[in-house]
Design a protein that fits this description.
Alpha-D-Glucose-1,6-Bisphosphate, Chain A, domain 3, about 20% strand, 3 domains, TATA-Binding Protein, alpha/beta, six-stranded antiparallel sheet, 20 helices
């Protein structure tokens, strides 16, 4: 259907209020095209977009239609209707409304739906799917994106995000589902029929009890944790209560929450974007930390799956660590402590994404632990956990992505910000007792295994023209691969679209470079962006940073 046909159909059959129709008829033609030339894409991370009217936007109608499509998949899956779906939402504007609409549409299709009564983090939803033996899960969230975004993230029965084959089925069913098929059931009727069930404190308790089992050295935490000063910011998101509850139970009771960022607020008024990867997100937290003399400062994003960490360097300057650095710091701590306590399995394995630092591999090799690469997306780490459990080949001990996502347990199958906050606190306590800061510990890792530096560049290419440009970029890199990027020779090329290394096919090109450096290019699966990852290593910190920066600049030139 051409965008004009989709627009007219929306005007006459979908928009239900005068305000909605007035808004649409006032739009310029270019905006109409952008909103209606396609449906929001639905991939392994579900769908995500700017909140507004249109088939290419997040709104109650696209949420309803996606829910009807998911219901069709569940009905076609043995036991799907009866086992049902767990539904959660974060603090974004309209998240609660979208979650309720999703739940009631699922109920209208006869699917049992377990809806959280108020906002909850992603890891609690992932846990609930497995704990309730549900067939699927939905979280309304756009993670760390700007305030105008929201999203619809879908999970399957293993607690991980929807596998590619099933995501493709949902995408197909969205395309064949008319909005008239996606009508919510009355809430009272859904409750009376037992189709709608609310989840609350009892489910929270089950998650919190589990989170405590992931502590590496719980006796030490309980006896000494109260002496560790922590500043925490939920960045106006869903992590506030779950993170504080977990820390208190573990013995970390001296926790100060940034007051301006404590309460949920979908406008995220104190930050440009609610992204704990960005140093700007730590401005208020660092000011508070300076005032009270905090030992550690961390923040979670709105759905509390990502965690950022800020530390003071040896010059007393505050620095937000990268996801690679936090991941390696936690990986090294987990392996060090498990080895010392005799709890490191002989067949231990860690898992990371292909765009995550190779420093992690060097750490694992030193401990005799397998390091396994997967495609970008935490669902692929979840698949490895499932595979390990089924085959017994390895025991999962840690997984992470460079985008500030970490996991050390197996009953949650996505990034777990609560788990990560506990690990960071444990590590800070462990090193403090040795007279070291987390920055000191990171420097020791670099000095032992070499300095690794990474630079990520994301270029936004919106609209139909943007999609064409991204396809052209990827085609060009495949048909005319560079022999040299910047000052470094290309020593090997991995085209993951051909299923390189036995991994599932993915639109990613990876250039191996001399000296252990590498550069990777991939279109984002959830946003109109193309991303470039430049990584370099050297014996000297400044040289590693220079090389990474140089690679990123050279990469932009060959890409754009």
């Amino acid at each position: 259907m051409e965008y004009r046909q989709a627009y007219e159909h929306w005007l006459t059959s979908v928009a239900q209020t005068r305000e909605e129709m007035d808004e649409l008829t006032a739009l310029p033609e270019a905006e109409i095209e952008d909103r209606f030339y396609t449906d929001l894409s639905f991939g392994t991370a579900g769908m995500r977009g700017v909140m507004a009217q249109g088939t290419n936007r997040m709104n109650i109608y696209t949420v309803r239609r996606a829910s009807a499509a998911l219901a069709k998949l569940l009905i076609a899956t043995p036991g799907g209707r009866e086992r049902g779906v767990c539904v959660a939402f974060d603090s974004r504007n309209h998240s609660q409304e979208f979650a309720r609409e999703a739940a009631l549409v699922l109920c209208a299709w006869g699917v049992k739906t377990m809806l959280y009564e108020s906002l909850r983090p992603v890891p609690m939803l992932s846990f609930a799917v497995r704990d309730q033996k549900a067939m699927a899960g939905v979280v309304i969230t756009a993670s760390h994106n700007p305030k105008q975004y929201n999203g619809y993230k879908v999970y399957w029965e293993d607690g991980g995000q929807l596998p590619p084959d099933r995501a493709a089925i949902v995408q197909e069913k969205i395309a064949e589902t008319d909005f008239s098929e996606a009508v919510p059931m009355d809430e009272k009727e859904a409750l009376d029929k037992g189709l709608l069930i609310y989840l609350g404190e009892e489910q929270d308790e089950r998650y919190q009890t589990y989170a405590q089992t992931l502590l590496i050295d719980p006796e030490k935490d309980q006896s000494e944790g109260a002496g560790l000063k922590i500043v925490y910011s939920p960045l106006h998101g869903s992590g506030n209560i779950p993170v504080r509850t977990a820390l208190k139970r573990a013995g970390f009771t001296d926790v100060t929450v940034v007051p301006e960022q404590e309460l949920p607020n979908g406008d995220f008024p104190t930050v440009k974007v609610p992204n704990p990867e960005e140093k700007d997100a730590f401005t208020l937290a660092l000011k508070l930390a300076e005032e009270i003399g905090a030992d550690v400062v961390f923040a979670t994003d709105p759905d509390c799956d990502r965690v950022g960490l800020a530390v003071k360097d040896n010059h007393g300057d505050a620095r937000a660590l990268t996801g690679n650095e936090i991941g390696c710091l936690l990986l090294h701590y987990v392996l060090t402590q498990k080895k010392a306590l005799g709890t490191l399995p002989k067949n231990a394995a860690a898992v990371k994404s292909i765009v995550t630092t190779e420093l992690a591999r060097r750490i694992c090799e030193d401990f005799g632990v397998a390091m396994i690469d997967v495609l970008t997306g935490f669902k692929f780490i979840a698949e490895k956990i499932q595979q390990f459990e089924e085959t017994g080949e390895h025991t999962f001990v840690f997984g992470f992505e460079e985008s500030c996502g970490y996991l050390s347990g197996t009953r949650v199958r996505d990034k777990d910000g609560v788990n990560a906050c506990l690990l960071i606190s444990e590590a800070a306590l462990y090193y403090r007792d040795q007279g070291k800061t987390l920055y000191d510990a990171l420097e020791e890792i670099y000095q032992k295994y070499g300095y690794h530096s990474a630079k990520v560049v994301a270029v936004t290419l919106p609209g139909l023209d943007g999609l064409d440009r991204m396809r052209g970029i990827m085609t060009g890199l495949r048909q005319n691969p560079p022999a040299k990027i910047g000052e470094l020779k290309v020593t090997g090329t991995r085209d993951y679209l051909s299923g390189w290394g036995g991994l599932p096919k993915s639109d990613v090109v990876y250039f191996e470079l001399e000296g252990g450096a590498w550069l990777c290019v991939r279109p984002s699966g959830t946003e109109p962006k193309i991303k470039l990852y430049a990584n370099a290593c050297a014996a000297d910190k400044a040289e590693a940073a220079r090389l990474a920066e140089s690679l990123a600049e050279a990469g932009k030139k060959i890409m754009l």
